[in-house]
DNA sequence: CATGAATGAGGATTCATTCAT
DNA sequence: TATGAATGAATCCTCATTCAT
């Protein structure tokens, strides 16, 4: 019987990587649209053009798949943030530049991977995230916290609970992406957003000046 | 034939309103904690201390219950916003004061009804909201949009897509409440947040000055 | 509070009889349309313009209500058959006239109480009929059986299992009423049916002649 | 990409057809005994020796299953009737032989598939039958109607509403099977029934002779 | 490794029955 | 006696997971 399976995937050494990645990508897309809890494994399988059973060959459970997607992208975010922080640090930047670098990295992530950003920041993951996934999140949080705290110490950033400031920043970013559903955020909006958010972080200093 | 049934009907009605309200309140609490999709009707029933069947006497389906909760609180928000706008308008306020009034009304709502605010702004309702529920949302959006637009025309508010500015504002507010999970937002944080958000809205003007 | 309860039913000594009868009549109508198993007590209550609880004041259960309806009409049928048999017997009729009298009584019943006839002959009552109800049925069956058997003995009726002949007769009658759903069987059809069914009972004799 | 999946698909399909047929057969048996409305899906599953979920892989709902069973057997009846009509037509039969052929085909069906015949002719399907199922029924009705009408025109069949005659015929047949519940109709009874029913159709002609 | 039919526990919904008023 | 809101067991249906091929 002749069937068109749609894609070459059974050949070569990296086949399982390819399949696994296809599943991860499909899962992200479907989770973003329907919520983790709202998507059926069959939907992911259909989106990945794979049989249901195949998903279970790569991930032991739906929860594990959810964690894998979360970890994949949160780790990507962490990598990006570290790279940005590294560049800023190498340049001997002041705390202000460091915060700005982290902000821009996050913004960049949100623009380049809108689905991933929405999935990560926009949903309630509490019910299924495991320790590994949380560890990545905690590391990112710690990094941002440190940058903000240092900025506050240096007088570049307004006073206030750093955790709250970060949460508001991220929240504003989430709002930004929510304002353009299913579309990339326009360039103009990005510029406005950056100014606006930066003002948020420095308003007190500005007021003082 | 006309008969005076005395209190019988009213009694039934009273009872019914009370039960209905208990279910709505329980549903809000449980939906907020577990997500609409993540809660079982049995959980709502247990939280409301009624039998499962009782919920179906008052709401035809889980979806209808979700809509009712959404509408109840979004309508409350609308009422609050209208009251705030009315007070500001009576005071002959400028556009700046009007926007500030709306912001404070929303903030106040988030502080006084943290569960409701989280339920409304924090979840993906797309899958089950009906036309009625959306109508309330649209009205609120229109109100805020108008205020921002007028503020921009008056030069009180920075330029930029008004929808985006509102989304960022709300997002920041969501982030704020998320930063203090299961607890009221501290007073100090509220003050900081207001300054920060206001700076967001006016940064350009400030920059220009 | 003034409400129109639609009917006077709370006055006089025979009130409960009236209510009970209203429920029985409503039940017959709804059972006939939706099947015993397919009707909800609430439907019967609505059709009887009575509250659900009221039905349970008169009948201990849905099953009891079903039995009561069945018994009511099967008993009516029995009464009619006895009257017809009585008249025929008094007239000193031959077995042929007796069978014809029973047939006409049944036909008359089917024409005058089409819902009742359909309910009685057309549904599977096996699951809920109690001994009392079956007793009435058995008595009718015995009566018909005796008439047919006597007719066969007298050579007026063709040979064959009398139970089968009765079942076919009744079946044909059911078919007749089914052919005119929601409407009375036309006079012309009745005449045809009588000839046809009578031919069924006597065909052999005719063939022999 | 075109791949030869070998027997995989066919295997799946075979398996599926077998399972589907097992479910259909089980459903017929249980529906016949307990009525469509009176049977739980779990009963069908148990009778088919499959899990509940398996039924839903093959039929989207209980209603769809009911329709499928109905259509399966009504279609079989149609096929049988057509074959009988074909044979009678080829033999150049007169209208009398044609009607007799149809009658015998139906009788044969009732004898060979007593459950199916009871399910089809004995229950109220109105509540769940869909257009497809009704189409088959209508086709059978039209076929019988045509035969009777032609027979009447040729003077072989008595006058009267053909729909009514058919309904009475079928009704008598239903009564016949009802007279021997859970058992095959005895040969002797079949012969009697045929004479009786034929007398029903021709009584007038006979009377006239 | 891939497949997808089968499984069955779990969740939404219905409805006969009860009982406080 | 009548009412109808409340009850919860029973029922339909879903979907994560398994496993024979």
Describe the structure.
The structure is a homotetramer of 209-residue chains. Chain A is an all-alpha fold and 209 residues long. Chain A has helices at residues 15-34, 41-48, 52-58, 62-90, 95-112, 114-122, 131-153, 162-179, 187-208, and one strand spanning 2-4. Chain A folds into 2 domains: 1-59, Arc Repressor Mutant, subunit A, CATH 1.10.10; 62-208, Tetracycline Repressor, domain 2 (Orthogonal Bundle), CATH 1.10.357.10. In chain A, helix 1 (15-34) packs across helix 4 (62-90) and helix 4 (62-90) packs antiparallel against helix 5 (95-112). Chain A is elongated, with a radius of gyration of 20 Å. Mean pLDDT of chain A is 88; it is low at 1-12 and 205-209. Chains A and B meet through helix 8 and helix 9 of A and helix 8 and helix 9 of B. Chain B binds a DNA duplex (21 and 21 nucleotides) through residues 5, 7-9, 11-12, 15-16, 19, 40-42, 50-54, 56-58, 60-62.
SSE layout and pairing:
4 copies of one chain form a homotetramer.
Chain A: E1 2-4, H1 15-34, H2 41-48, H3 52-58, H4 62-90, H5 95-112, H6 114-122, H7 131-153, H8 162-179, H9 187-208
Helix pairs in contact in A: 1-2, 1-4, 1-6, 4-5, 4-7, 5-6, 5-7, 6-8, 7-8, 8-9
The structure holds a DNA duplex (21 and 21 nucleotides).
Give me the Rg of chain A, rounded. 20 Å
In DSSP terms (H or I, runs of 4 or more residues), the helix count of chain A works out at 9
Looking at how many chains there are and whether they match, the oligomeric state comes to: homotetramer
Specify which chain pair forms the largest interface.
A-B, 46 and 46 residues
Helix share bin of chain A: over 70%
């Amino acid at each position: 019987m002749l069937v068109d399976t749609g894609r070459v995937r059974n050949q070569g050494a990296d086949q399982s990587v390819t399949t696994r990645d296809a599943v991860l990508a499909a899962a992200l897309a479907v989770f973003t649209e329907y919520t983790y809890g709202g998507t059926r494994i069959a939907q992911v399988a259909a989106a990945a053009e794979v049989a249901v059973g195949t998903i279970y060959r790569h991930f032991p459970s739906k929860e594990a798949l959810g964690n894998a997607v979360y970890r994949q992208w949160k780790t990507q975010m962490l990598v990006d943030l570290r790279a940005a922080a590294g560049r800023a640090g190498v340049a001997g930047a002041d705390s202000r530049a460091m915060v700005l670098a982290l902000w821009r990295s996050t913004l960049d992530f949100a623009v380049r991977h809108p689905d991933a950003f929405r999935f990560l920041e926009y949903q309630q993951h509490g019910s299924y995230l495991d320790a590994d996934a949380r560890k990545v999140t905690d590391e990112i949080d710690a990094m941002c916290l440190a940058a903000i705290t240092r900025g506050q110490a240096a007088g570049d950033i307004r006073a206030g609970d750093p955790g709250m400031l970060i949460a508001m920043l991220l929240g504003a970013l989430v709002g930004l992406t929510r304002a353009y559903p299913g579309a990339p955020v326009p360039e103009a909006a990005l510029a406005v957003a950056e100014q606006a958010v930066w003002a948020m972080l420095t308003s007190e200093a500005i007021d003082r000046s």
